[in-house]
Amino acid sequence: MVTQTESDMSRIGNPQPHSSAWMAQVWISWLLAFFAMFGGILFLPADVWTKGYLLMGLVFTVGSTMNLSKTVRDNHEATKVSSVINDARLEKILAEHDPLR
Question: What is the DSSP string of 31-74?
Answer without folding.
Answer: HHHHHHHHHHHHTSSS-HHHHHHHHHHHHHHHHHHHHHHHHHHH
